[in-house]
Amino acid sequence: MNRNIKILMHTHWDREWYFTKSETQVLLRNHMFEVIEFLEENTDVIYILDGQSVMLDDFIEFAPKWKERVKALVERKALRVGPWYTQTDLMLVHGESIIRNLYYGMKKAMEYGDVMKVGYAPDTFGHSAQIPQIYKQFGIESTFFWRGFSELKADKSDFLWKGIDGSVIFGINLATGYQGAKYLESDKDELKSRMEKIMKVLDKYSAGDSRLIMNGHDQMPIQKDIHAVMDNIREFYPDAEVSIADFESYVDSLKDLTLETVEGDLNHSKHARIHKTITSTRMDIKLLNTELEYKIYNILEPLALLGKNLNIDYPHEIFEKCLKEMFGTHAHDSIGGCNSDLVNKDIKQRLIQVKEIVDTQIELYMRLISLSAEKKGKNVITLYNYLPYERKNETVEVEFVTRTSDFKVLNGEKEIDYLVLSQNVEDAGLIDRQVAARLLDIKVFRTKAVLNVESIKGLSVEYLTFEEGVSYELINNVAADTSIENDFYKVTIENNGIKLLVKGTGEVVEDVFSIETSGDAGDSYDYSPPHKDIIFASKDSTITNIESLKGNTQEILKYRVSYNLPQDQASRDLGKQDKEIFFDVTLTLDNSDMIKVDLEHTNSLKDTRFRAVLNTNIKTETVECDSHLSVIENPVYFEKELSIWEEDKWAEKPVSIETFNSYVALEKDEKRATIFSYGLKEYEVLDKKIFVTLFRSFSHLGKRELINRPGRPSGIEIETPDNQLIGEKFKFSLAASFVKNNKNDSIKAKEFLTPIAGYQLKEFNRFNINVPKVKTIIESELSLDLKGCVVSTLKESTQSENIFIRLFNPTNSEIQLDFSKETYMSNMFEEKLEKIEKYTIKGQEILNILV
């Protein structure tokens, strides 16, 4: 057999795991010294820097004098860097984060002279079906990966991967892993034995004559005796060509072959564990990350566009800093939460610091825009539509700080009705230090109120005013009613459960929303049921503390769900229910067909999993959900995989628990039910119900011999008591719809995650700022007819001052878009291409334009 043996020299560089980012940065400095010197001395050697450009930033920060030597090696393609900024997770994080990660990774690599255009993701826990299109739009024609492959996908590990939109790239599964040829032996007999094992696997799975030998491992130093090792390999295989190569040359060897075509997600766990239920590990960290993604992509970037109308500088540098810091937490281990407690604390703290920047920047923009509206007076309320189309008959929540408990909200001379959601008294000195410094005793009322917005144009600001009243008595609209309703639904607490009437069809759904809890014997990688479990559902709970709020804009039902549960696995084993816990639930109906569900809970249980349950009354075999800038369809039950996994000795059980982005829907005939989520991304469908995991609590980073994952532990077996999340205060935001109409659920999800925002210009503030030079109201707007397409990005281009929009078609049909404003095609690099007046966007296609 005339093999072409290609040795790929690399290191896999987890920046953090059961060790910290700071520790690896010190090690990286030493590692890079050796790599640079070895590459300079051996000009035939190519070395792959794990596909992530952040390693350059981390190294040069500690060794700035070495930058020119690094650039020289990158320019001659001896040191291969990029395309990622960090080795990101490809299932959990937002699709925009994946795109921006590639953008900044390729940008950084090009600063050093060249970028490796290969979708290298060696250790990521699964790959979504939209990834081929994202790669393709960056000019990347291949992906090399380890986890996610099985023979149910293809017979050979070299194949064509067809994305959900039809984009096709080369897919190369690393059949022996990214670490298959780590530390190749210098002893000839040991090396021969090792190579025979490697070749046996590669001969079986490789589609052509090339054999990819992955010579690297986690933080592995460069193997300096590689030339002597290669001489020995040539002796073992005299007919083979043996060389140090790169990924691109391996792809070249496949181009004349007839390869199998694979479609869909790459998430099979036969040869390597995929950890599908890592989606619910350390939900405190995951929810914080999602909050930042939504605030940056959905709020702050379009808000910064509005600020340009007042000559406020668009803060590209702030966005880059925040995004890169966030991407540092997006590595598969980092955002997965499968780390030591110390590392998880560091990750969470870094995200908190980004949140402080993002929240302050949002508040600053709103305050500057409000201060500029001089002709509206001092008592200004500004409303913001962050989407580029008109929105009608929606609600907006505004927080007021006033000296009186009552006040008027005015649109010109017209008074606008509002509903007080909550109100409390505060000391103004705790808000404004000038009040405290002057020893003034000023009490203020902090009020959350909701009001109706009849219409607001796309990407625009609307201005209202307010007048303080005369009362100082706290407003309390609470009643004891057990039902709420709007034009679409009636929701009633009845028989210790929640009953839904769908008015359009007359259908009644009993126990429509509930919370389920069970044991969790898993670890930071996977949920796994305990050998002895007790599952508690709504029938085991008690509903108390019922109250309602009713106004012209919203009707709200609040209640408390209480359970007596085992406090840990030891109590569960004994059948003891020795801990009372509760969830505070708020159900809201407004003008839309969405039932909003907000939950508050403080965890006090160990070894436990909680899930929100939506009863749909729909029996179906398929599930619709959104993924990365796309919509996919999954089976309810993975029958083929689950029928063979034990016999074929898969690395872990291919559970029918899947990842989604923001919604999950079941549909049969004319019935459709959807659950929407802010940051919760794990679902399972059982018996007409959609289960969305709220959070899990567990004891170890890794465990062995789990029911769902037999054999060795993943990671290492160290205790991680922080993962029990004792005392963690959670706020969950969900919504549900039982109405099927012309607005697709991707648009509904986007609007749910991007509500109209409101800001009151307050008398008391933490910081003093000057009134902007430009004193005017913002009258610009951007209203596009997207015809069912969904906006993913609305920002200023990094290449010009034009508005950059990324949108996608969530349907499987073509959509004809017409552009009335001057519009240009663009790409993932936000560059201006040809002018367009119309465009036919394919089903599931991502489109980049400049306006």
Automatic annotation (TrEMBL):
Residues 280-351 form the Glycoside hydrolase family 38 central domain. It comes from the Bacteria. InterPro entries: Gal_mutarotase_sf_dom, Glyco_hydro/deAcase_b/a-brl, Glyco_hydro_38_cen, Glyco_hydro_38_cen_sf, Glyco_hydro_38_N, Glyco_hydro_38_N_sf, Glyco_hydro_57/38_cen_sf. It holds the Pfam family Alpha-mann_mid. The keyword RNA-binding does not apply. Keywords: Glycosidase, Hydrolase, Metal-binding. One of its GO terms (molecular function) is hydrolase activity. Belongs to the glycosyl hydrolase 38 family. This is Glycoside hydrolase family 38 C-terminal domain-containing protein. The lineage of its organism: Bacteria, Fusobacteriati, Fusobacteriota, Fusobacteriia, Fusobacteriales.
